[in-house]
């Protein structure tokens, strides 16, 4: 058995065999038992009075932290139920139906915990069920690898994938009706040396799109973004690395722009969330529906607002610039480490300086940091899965391309010269924005430094 408590297989039948109330009230976690020992996880706060008499057999102990203990003992009734469901499948009692209930309960459990992705990872000994919540992966459940094939087969079945194929990657989408709501999921299955890695992305159409003032941006950034939305034409860029919240921000911009008076068209790969009254195009390279082919024809649709999921190369940039110059408001994302570096990235993509200087209106660069849980003020509780953090907030820096910056772009002046001008006009970079979040006790110093240093 491994030392890492997060990958330990817990025999949940021990809660019923002995006394669940005893374990919960004394902060003791049963792990497994064999002919020689009963192994228990304990923490410094565990009550071990009369434990020898309670079990009257040889005991082995593993010490863990208090918040780990509280997390592992949380939702214990559901964990016991999941454990029992799969145990019954080994008895061949309507095993497909038992697996169905197991998968649906697991997925619904992940949704109630606000997970964006479910990772099911098999090895020779165990299956890890990990949920990504607020960008952070946490192991919620571990089972013996005996059950991996039936779980994999059932997921392939509902996703219309080849059940017999376990040597090549497969991906698909599926829907489930859970608690009277329909959810969409995207599934990816990869063969690994000890089994399969399954990742299920939760595409929650019931989830309300956030508005700009609920993303956790500082006030000066929110004010600038609302000013940007008043534009009738021009290019607005949202920059940052993968996982920095760019997609959520551009959807929030669209939410505020959406009205019966505007025609809004998006080109995305893939479409993450469907939005009412907006024409969304999902790129599909397999059938030739590429970014390039769509963008070449999109202006014939007479849009007021155009969202390009990502500017990746010279062609998409040129179309974005041309469209923004001819009476369209264009919103897009770009991979870049800062708002200033975005200018350099655009020039590297051979952007025409005149088009850039004339069309570019705002550059927002952003990151996401975990925010302190309001229920426990960072100490750790059931609401935040005993992590101390709940949800994320946005750090950002924003450049408004005014006439002076536009002139500097046209004259091909250096980024250092542009930076000097910005600093003379009270420019606040993303690091200083992070420091203000720390000062206001919204997040920790460790979170801000981790995010900034990962640039």
The class by helix and strand makeup works out as alpha/beta
Helix share bin: 25-40%
Shape, principal axes of CA atoms: globular
Please give the order of strands in the largest beta sheet: 12-11-13-14-10-15-16
- State the end-to-end distance: 37 Å
The description of the largest β-sheet is:
7 strands, mixed
Give the CATH level 1 class of the largest domain: Alpha Beta
Overall residue-averaged pLDDT value: 92
- Separate helix tally: 17
| CATH homologous superfamily heading of the largest domain | P-loop containing nucleotide triphosphate hydrolases
**How many strand segments?**
16
From the 3D structure, determine the CATH topology of the largest domain.
Rossmann fold
Quickly list its features.
16 strands; globular; six-stranded antiparallel β-sheet; Rossmann fold; 455 residues; Beta-Lactamase; GMP Synthetase, Chain A, domain 3
What is this structure's SSE topology?
Blueprint: H1 13-17, H2 20-26, E1 28-33, E2 38-42, H3 51-55, E3 59-63, H4 66-73, H5 76-89, H6 95-112, E4 117-122, E5 126-133, E6 136-144, H7 148-158, E7 170-178, E8 181-192, E9 195-203, H8 219-228, E10 234-239, H9 246-257, E11 264-268, E12 279-282, H10 291-298, E13 305-308, H11 314-325, E14 329-334, H12 339-348, H13 353-359, E15 360-372, E16 389-400, H14 403-410, H15 415-424, H16 430-439, H17 445-453
Parallel strand pairs: 2-3, 10-14, 10-15, 11-12, 11-13, 13-14
Antiparallel strand pairs: 1-2, 4-5, 4-9, 5-6, 7-8, 8-9, 15-16
Helix pairs in contact: 5-6, 6-7, 11-13, 13-14, 16-17
